[in-house]
Fold this sequence. Notes:
Helix content is 53%, strand content 9%.
Amino acid sequence: MSREQVQEELRRRGYLDSRLDRFVLTAAGPTPLHACRRVAARLGLVGGVLFGLTLSLVAAGLDPRLLSDAADLTVLSLYLMAALAAVTTVAALIVGLLAAWCGRQGRTPPSDLGPKIGMTLSLAALAYLVPWWQTHATEASLAYRLATAVAGLGLSLALGRFGAMASIAVLAAGGGSGRLPEAGVSHRRTLPLLAAAALLLGVAVSGAAYLASADGEVPDYAVVPSDVRVRVLGVDGLDPRMVDQMISRREMPRMAALLKSGARGRMRVEPERVPALVWTTIATGRAPEDNGILPADARRVPLAPGDEGRLVRMGATASDLLRLTRAQPSTAVLREVKPFWSVASEKGFRVGVVNWRATWPADPVNGYVVSDRAFFTLEKRGPRDREAPPAAFARLEEAGLNSEPDRARRVDLFALDAAELLRGGHPPALEVIYLPGLDVATMEQLGEAGGSDLATLDARLDAVRSGYRFTDGLIGRAVDGLEPGEVLMLVGDPGRLARRAVGAPEGLLVIIGGPAVTVDLGEVSERDVAPTLLHLLGLPVSRELPGSPLEAAFDAAFRRSHPVRAIASYGRRPVSRAEDGGFDHELVEQLRGLGYVR
């Protein structure tokens, strides 16, 4: 059959009625492979323009700032059109080759092969668009959500039609045009199936959301209260080797006294260099791949700082837009399991958490969570956005934000001041404080470019020693604030610089007060912190936690009255979402200023 005869047969069956059909199908050549290549190229051109421009409008809806910069929007559109033209071309080639293969197997291809292929492509597109919509659109306005849902369904149908056209062109070139159904019949068969598939996918999404919410229910298990109040002081950048040196120089007297009077151990630390990962692992007792926290700059473009131009920025934007996940700072929203304070809160213990990493937005608890964004918000006098409970936030303005010229030290002082203000006359059963200042100061003096300047090495080492002396005073302040019977657990992670050194870095764990005894615990793990704290409060230990309670840290009477109990799980953390905002980007800049993001 000649090319003219094929086109006449396609026209007779209604496949060349529209301009798009004529543009694509008249490209078909005399052989199936020739038709496959030419039709795929034309479909790629049409798909790139259609899908690329549509997604550019979607991007502008997600980030209205693109509308004010025509150059950025143009570059983004070109990226998207090129990427989606390639995707459409490849999809059309695969479909065409599949149709050609069906026609070469010595049997007659089914007459409805084209519609079936088109429906399969549409379903594949819907399977991609549903999680994309959940990730990017569920926190937008109702109008935007409806518009993206309609656009997504339309694009899925368009991709399916493109696939059907490619298969029809190849089948026609192979002499199968006489077996093709009428174009109207083909459309009538396909559309109801696609509508039913969209409905089923919607039901699946709703069911998944329901199951996720049910996952957050609190398991029923018994608590045997120990009547012990616990304070946790997390110190980032506290390297035991440096502590030993400072004690030998008599420059950390409070730390020396602490080590002599409590249960102490050298901690096997997490390998990750990103503080949010390390301290979330400590808080949950679970590895990063289980707890869900990723680095704040996990999507960083691999170029040197300052090299990012418009092409790079818009390329990253296009990449993120097509992903099923979003780049965002390490926040509590990403955490998939419960930290130890949430487990305690769910069982009626009053808890107080101040400045712990990746705690924004502050979770509702029996007590208060002052997130790691509270200091930055108060410092810049920005709008409040779930940094802490409203009642607690009003009192935080009294914390000393300007009492120290060094910003890293101000963060530490703010954390201790905030804890004391909120503690008041009704201290929580579990209080948790995180001090990042020593790690920040050490990296400022010895990390990155500073470490190569040998001429100023003595001065920079003196600055680090000054940071250790300052931290020793903060530790002493925490010890002085203990009431009779209270337990203080000092968790010292060696920080980012120590992880770059030769040999395995170690952390430091000290427990004093209450049932704690003076003993050398030997080597312990950062994953032992969560089960030890929960056991100390009287809660059973989840079998999901790889660590174990450090029973040797407590006296025989406590071990007899509170043997370790186990349960299967504490349950999943309830699903939560944070609204995107400009402050996300500002937070990254604040973290960059403290050295946590490069």
